[in-house]
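Hi Y.,

Following your request, here is the sequence exactly as I used it, all 182 residues.
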Amino acid sequence: MAGKDKELLAISSIIELLTPLDATERGRVIEYVLKRLDMSALSTRTAVHEMPTTVDFSTFAPTLVDIRTLTAEKQPRSANEMVALIAYYVSEVAPDSDRSSTINADIVRKYFKMAGFPMPRVLRNALTNASAAGYLENVSRGEYRLNPVGYNLVVHGLPRSGNAAATSVRKKSRRAQKTARK
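Below is the corresponding structure, written out as tokens. Let me know if you'd prefer a different format.
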């Protein structure tokens, strides 16, 4: 019986903590907790019939995530990765009113600002650089679409494992070596 008491205590604590939040906030909290615990759905067994039942929390939690939250979750390290993240966001995650299959400099500017990510010096170049890196395909002049490489980067490759600080130190030391050779 002690196991059931712990479960009831946990349930009542969760309900108490979520009650002051609106539906969108509750959804984000539940979605984050499920991801943090590596759970997309919970399986339980009923005591009487021993039949498996599945509770899919995605029906309760809206999947809409704002760009700032997605950026914090995926932790892009470069403008190229951020542009790919923006293209993913507007094509897959954004509210219907903001959805678009393509991105351009205006969209990139808007979402760099909203995410609080450092703005590239030349915004146009951020799109062409992300395309050259293989994350986007050029649809028309100034319009780009996320390609499978960019999609896989965002969904499966970010956040990157490893130490970002060590990477930047290596890059600095390479620059120092090149400068010393000259």
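The helical segments are 2-18, 23-36, 67-74, 79-93, 105-115, 123-132, 148-157, 164-181.

Thanks again,
Q.
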